[in-house]
Amino acid sequence: MKDKILITGANGQLGSVLTTKLQGIYGTDAVIATDIKFSASFKGNFEFLDATDFNSIEGIIKEHNITQIYHMAAILSANGEQQPLRTWDINNKTFLNVLEAARLNGVDRVFFPSSIAVYGENAPKDETPQDFFLVPTTVYGMSKASGEHWANYYFSRYGLDVRSLRYPGVIGHQTSPGGGTTDYAVDAYHYAVKGEDYTCFLNETASLPMIYMDDAIRATIELMEAQPETIKTRTSYNIASMSFNPAELQQAICEIFPNFKMIYKPDFRQNIADSWPNSIDDSEARKDWGWQPNYDLKAMTKDMIKHLNKKYK
Ligand code: AKB
């Protein structure tokens, strides 16, 4: 049977880049992009989908004979703290609907995006091991930690092929960030290219794991295309690429824009950053399915600025 792919949250930061990439690999007709909002620039098959409604998800799976689901819809860490109960409800309900609809309708494979937000203050800060126990501090992190356990449960109990990555902060030029704690880094590039100073909501020493969008999307597709027997972790894989703090990012940008300035005004997001690792250990992903990042801070900065220069010209 030919693959038919459903993406939820297809207009989000990662979802929209992933949709374009999957359309390129599998063909535009093989991809059904869904979201609760429509983007005028979208090209391809789009359907409105409120993933909190089980019948709507099941309807789309049946109508299009869906074989793979990438469930990208979620409320991120900083926005989540503004509305904890709604975030728990949206993030968990949508994923449980996806899992159950996938199981009942013979979907082959499901992708669940987890996050470094699953770790809490108890975890070692550097090279945090994948299997360290999870005590998240945000409702977003709690929803991702519980999602990982549900993924594992559906795999062990029903044999549903659910795969998951713990993303670091994702930085890309294609889309605007949507309410995360690591989003300062994306914002900083935009301000630098526009020739403006940037007021950062984290302090200059807040070091966090980050990844360039190209690497994040490639990791996602490589994981989903890996042979099932190579996937040994059914909760979620750590993937690492680079780690830096705002001062190091400023320095990297200043190599291209020497006058770029960052002003530091930490707010509630600093507490979230303080509870997350500085760097994570991704040796399991490297060992099991060959994960390897391509971009470091310097290479990412060069590429981001090249693309944003075109955008703002
Ligand atoms: C966020 O900052 O909330 C996200 C994440 C690290 O999951 N980018």
TrEMBL record:
GO biological process: L-threonine catabolic process
InterPro entries in the record: Epimerase_deHydtase, NAD(P)-bd_dom_sf, NAD(P)_epim/dehydratase
Domain (NAD-dependent epimerase/dehydratase) ranges: 5-240
Membrane-crossing residue ranges in chain numbering: none
Residues spanning the signal sequence: none
Pfam families tied to this protein: Epimerase (PF01370)
One of the record's GO molecular function terms: L-threonine 3-dehydrogenase activity
Entry similarity comment: Belongs to the NAD(P)-dependent epimerase/dehydratase family.
Name of the protein: NAD-dependent epimerase/dehydratase family protein
Organism (species): Hyunsoonleella flava
Organism taxonomic ancestry: Bacteria, Pseudomonadati, Bacteroidota, Flavobacteriia, Flavobacteriales
